[in-house]
Amino acid sequence: MCNVCIHISRCYAVASQFKGCRERIQEEPTIIRDLCRILYYKNLTKLCTVVADCISAFCVDFYLQSQLFQSGVLWHLLLYLFNYDYTLEESGVEKSDESNKQEISNQLAKLCIKACARLGGYYIQQEEAESPPDNPAVKKSLSAMLTPYMSRKLANENSAELLKILNSNTENPYLIWDNATRGQLTEFLADQQQKMIKTGECDQDFGGMFVFEIHAKELIVGEIFVRVYNEQPTFPLENAKGFTIDLLDFLGSQAQYLHSLLMLKQSNQKSSEEQGSSQISRLSQVEMALEALRNVIKNNPGVEIQCIGHFKLLFCLLRLDNCAKLQQLALEVVNCVSANQECVKDIAAAEVLSYLLLAIQALPSCRVLTLESLASLMSSTKIVKEALAKGATVYLLDLFCNATNPAVREKTAELFAKMLSDKLVGPKVRIILGKFLPGIFMDAMRDSPEASVHMFEGTHENPELIWNDESREKVSSEVKKMKDQHYRAQRDNPDIKWNLSEEFNVVYNEVAGELVVGGVFLRLFIANPGWVLRKPKEFLTELLEIWSKLVALDKPDGEKLETLTSAVVCLFSSNNSLLDQVPSLGYIPKVFAAMKQKNDAIPKSAIQVCHQLASNEICIRAMAQVESIGPIKIAMKIRRDAIALAAEALSKMFDKGEEELVAQALKTEMVQYLLRLLEAGLESLDNPASTKAQIVKALKAMQRSLQYAEQINTILDGSLTWRDYKDQKHDLFISDNQIAGYLTDKAHQGPTGPSVAGYLTAGTRSAMPDKPPPLDHHEDHH
Questions:
Q1: pTM (global) more than 0.70
Q2: What gap in Å lies between CA 764 and CA 589, rounded to an integer?
Q3: Mean pLDDT across the stretch 8-20?
Q4: Which residues contact 198 (CB under 8 A, 6 or more apart)?
Q5: Which helix (H) or strand (E) holds 385?
Q6: Fewer beta carbons within 10 Å, N or C terminal of the chain?
Q7: CA-to-CA dists, residue 725 to 130, 148, 336, 713, 729, angstroms
Q8: 3-class DSSP state for residue 468?
Q9: Sequence-ordered list of residues with C-beta below 8 angstroms from that of 316, at least 6 positions apart, any chain
């Protein structure tokens, strides 16, 4: 009888290849019912294999598929899958279906897998005629009973992998499969099989609504077990992009619940639901979804772009103050997406930065993470602008000044440096920070965040910084007070703006009364001119600008002018290279214009500045382009005590051979004026000999002029005074050292001192000897 059934089944299988035969089989429902009944007899393994193959052949027709499905064929086919032994397949030993019953069971399981796949239309073959049609109803049942993950594997014609999974224990993000799930499924299948055989009735959904008890307790999003995925975040996902979208949709579906929870938190009310396990479970699911979202973004680069359009939801989660874990996970998601510029643009458009700023205060344990997120977002000028408006400055200042974690303070300094580097908003950030901290701190944040923190904690008194415990305490307390006030207001209204009045400044007692230019304390700079300035060119520009404005006044502050002048002199003395910059800044004409001022303090200041400029050849060339000699002459007449400096400046100016300067000297009768000074009028100076030497040097430099030498010599030769000086060596007297005596020619010495202007001991017509003179023991008594 068994052989008869085998041959009949094979006949049906061949007949199903013909359309007419298939139509006739459809008209005889008992054929399909009897085939399904044969599968009930588990002991007839050989017959069942033939019947399973016959069922596969029938599946080429949609109507036959449907009849098989409604006859409960799945109850029988699926049960045989669990008789498979994968260890036999993997053992590598020779086996025969004649002698090995397990081999027959394995073959039957493979044929049943194939029948299930063809029944649902999972196989897609190239020849359309051979492809079984898609059957959504069957697929729904298989997806429910085998799980979506395993049902998709039916499309793989190599059934060994799926059969092994079905008969072993597995736990991955797509599948939780163990003895319990197998037991529940086989029990359900056997029960339905019995009902179908005995009563002809079974589950009306044919397993389409079957749910595993273990799976019902799990959060499943997009066919993925979220808990397991969080335990195995590096597991390769089939569709990471789709999972990301599903997670965001799930979070969106919880938005109303989360909003209600936020309202309860804000009003400090407790509902009966909040006290129950339902609320805890729901909150836990949101946390798991956020954790999964973080993991999928972190381990699948590119999927973060799916978050665009959902940032208001994600950032709002940061407001749930009593749900620290949820807040932290939301923050981690924000941190992950902030590396993507498209996401940063969408965050900027959403204007949700205030929630991240509130997290600085609400999540003290996550401050480094918050700062890292902010740093990534600050690549957008729009976000830097929003940060400034929403009070990021005061929050960050509080961290920099008052945080106890060094890493937090250094990250804050890095973040400030990034904000300051923004071309559009950076200058405004610097202005605001400058109201709290000296400018040197901003530069230190840019160059070395760690050094800026150490600098803040130290005590300093140098030309660029006066800072001590009192200064530190004052700014720290002021910042904390402002931060607390703004935090309370922003917590109630996240859209509130933070404003700082134009007049606001933290005034430090230590620097009160100090004259500061370009961030440099002039008093300390003058006392320590060798100090290496951070921005010497900027200091030079600002110093000369203030000096030029001051000397343009009719009655400038004398003390301030003296301090500024000393600072200019110290700056050029210690930084000679800066002199090259002066001509291009346009201040040389202003120096000489100041020499004409009637206020006698101004010309002297101008001469002091000019004396420094004369040490540089580039400056001298610039002097030749403006009216310079005449103003110097005027200044020398106004301030005779500055003649020595002016004379030295003139000697340096003429020494470079600028013909235009010599021309100015002739035009302004400077040569005659200098000769008159040589003749008389220098006795009241501190060092008349040195001054005369500089004048002589200046006159001799003019004599070397290629263009005007003849005119200069004519004037000099006509001077009796010049005859006494023109052949003298004067180098010994051009020195800062005091030379005792400054003896003059004794042949012309009168009772009260020299009767002529000579001041060199070698005489007026003889050259200097090349060896020391003999000791003179004669003492002259008058």
A1: yes
A2: 40
A3: 78
A4: none
A5: helix 381-390
A6: C
A7: 124, 113, 84, 13, 8
A8: coil
A9: 258, 262, 352, 355
